[in-house]
Amino acid sequence: MKVTFITREGEKCAVEAAPGDSLLEVGQRAGMPLEGTCEGQMACSTCHVIIAREWFGRLSEASEEEEDMLDLAADVEATSRLSCQILLTEELDGLEVRIPEASHNAQGF
């Protein structure tokens, strides 16, 4: 299956993924600036992404804990999600995700 990331610069990057992968892992493998400092434990918002509006309704609803973490993220939009909380399914083949302008991976500095 494919996931398309749109970088901060507006470039599209289509990558291969498998059902069961987390969107965070797929993005990190593709070199996207998704830090994921808490390793998917919902203790940070460093994996914040913006889901294309036409795909947003296909995702399971965000939990209250995820919504609380999104309150701490920069550049939040109506279709923002934490990529660590999205597990890919066949129904999400073709998913389009935008990296927020303020997203920077500070790991490795």
From TrEMBL:
The keyword Ligase does not apply. Its cofactor is [2Fe-2S] cluster. Keywords: 2Fe-2S, Iron, Iron-sulfur, Metal-binding. It comes from the Bacteria. Residues 1-103 form the 2Fe-2S ferredoxin-type domain. PANTHER family: FERREDOXIN-2, MITOCHONDRIAL, FERREDOXIN/ADRENODOXIN. Belongs to the adrenodoxin/putidaredoxin family. This is 2Fe-2S iron-sulfur cluster-binding protein. It comes from Aurantiacibacter flavus. The lineage of its organism: Bacteria, Pseudomonadati, Pseudomonadota, Alphaproteobacteria, Sphingomonadales.
